[in-house]
Amino acid sequence: MDSNDFILGGYAKAPESIDHFSINSSYDLFIGGRWVKATQQFKTTNPANDQVIAEVGLAGKKEVNQAIKAARKAYESVWSKMPAADRGKYLFRIARLLQERARQFAVVESLDGGKPIRESRDVDVPLAAAHFFYHAGWADKLSYAFPGAKPKPIGVIGQIIPWNFPLLMAAWKIAPALACGNTVVLKPAETTPLSALMLAQLIEDADLPPGVVNIVTGAGETGQALVEHPGIDKIAFTGSTEVGKHIRKAIAGSGKRYTLELGGKAANIIFEDAPINEAVEGIINGIFFNQGHVCCAGSRLFVQESIADQVLRKLKKRIGTLIVGDPLDKNTDIGAINSREQLDRIKSLVKIGKEEGAQLWQSDQRIPRKGNWFKPTLFTQCAQSHRIVQEEVFGPVLAIQTFRTPKEAIAKANNTPYGLSGGVWTDKGSKAFQMTSSLNAGVVWANTFNKFDPVSPFGGMQESGIGREGGLQGLRAYCNLEL
Ligand code: NAP
Ligand code: MG
């Protein structure tokens, strides 16, 4: 072995192979069960090396209209009329095919989005399959989910998803919609369209009736065309608070239903009685998982003053061991930042953090020269008013503050316009319950972080959104309940 056989961090290279399947050089739009050529195309790149992976169709108003018409036809003629148990069978089939093709989905997710293969393989793909399995089970049992009511589908759903969990967000959106008898038009993010297109291929192979699922790739304008189209009955959006507000204004008065899963600035709170080593792992998982490209990332750390030095020391030591680099290498902990634009945003907020007086610390590990990378970063000496404390960085950047009493921790943690998630680390059950009920957040983890399950509803309060995905609440959002 020479030095080239080692990845940054000193381990021998352990790359996932990419020769077990092929990626097309060009993809069309998936509309009405057919592959439809768009008038224009755009390129999707690998953020780890800036190389173009494929060209994909750029759906304009015309193609969006075509997709919505196909979805309406499928809704009226087939899907809403089909016995619910048969809908369930299709969803089970999609779930099983996803499991069969898990390796290729994991590779594509890491290639197109930059996330470490360990995460796409062990988190994104299995959870996406789990969402299809979970909702497949509900398809013919909806009247038991809502006793006394007759659940009816809503109609045609427009679905828009971000780039941080492309396949998983597609599963979160498509599975419950279909289980309840709706048809969908889904738009993935511009920088990560490939896994949704591969899901379209899978759906074609699963013989789903044409038009039940339509995938239109494109940029923000494609999403806007979907939102503004009179032919949709509901918009399900996951993305930034800024675009979420825009969507809410755009559909005001239209009668369209909506759910909005938006940004976050979660507080991860560590008490002096917490198991410190586990809490340090929880902090690492909370903010460095998926390069911090996580809406519910634990991006604000609150440590009880008495253990602050100890936690900071252990945290720095642990960060020093993290491997930043090739997303396809199984040793990699932190992959590539999803796009140049996002990298610039992270850099600009970090610069502002320093200018505002917070103290920056970065580990000394090397990062690759080519591609989009950002070192795990800590800020201490933070004030509540600092922009790195108030704004979503959406990168591997942690703002650290201390507190003395639970009351102070709650006041500081709740000083945010967001309200998506939070975490509490303590040995004491009663303290955990006190904190979880006092934090303004849709999800609060105790002695763990970033855990997801299709059974458990996920969603935000305040500027983090409206509505829930997953569990009964998520199912409810895709039904009209007739009493
Ligand atoms: P974004 O800029 O809001 O984009 C989200 C999606 O909306 C993308 O598909 C985007 O297309 C599209 N879009 C952009 N402008 C639009 C418009 N005017 N009308 C309709 N659609 C439009 O968010 P992002 O940067 O991709 O994702 C990061 C954000 O998502 C973060 O704020 C994160 O917290 C949030 N997020 C929230 C959750 C949750 O469950 N609460 C989960 C994951 C992510 P293009 O990408 O092609 O521009
Ligand atoms: Mg890409």
User: What would you give as the CATH superfamily of the largest domain?
Assistant: Aldehyde Dehydrogenase, Chain A, domain 1
What fold name goes in the CATH topology slot of the largest domain?
Aldehyde Dehydrogenase, Chain A, domain 1
The residue ranges in which pLDDT falls below 50 over 5 or more consecutive positions are: none
Question: How many helical elements?
Answer: 16
Main sheet overview: 7 strands, mixed
- Unique bound compounds: NADP nicotinamide-adenine-dinucleotide phosphate, magnesium ion
If you compute it from the alpha carbons, what radius of gyration comes out, rounded to the nearest whole angstrom? Answer: 22 Å
Number of strands: 20
Report the CATH architecture of the largest domain: 3-Layer(aba) Sandwich
Number of domains: 2
State the name of the first-level CATH class of the largest domain: Alpha Beta
Beta-strand fraction estimate: 15-25%
The separation of the N and C termini measures: 70 Å
> Biggest sheet, strands in spatial order?
14-15-16-13-12-17-18
Outline type: globular
**Structural class label:** alpha/beta
Arithmetic mean pLDDT: 96
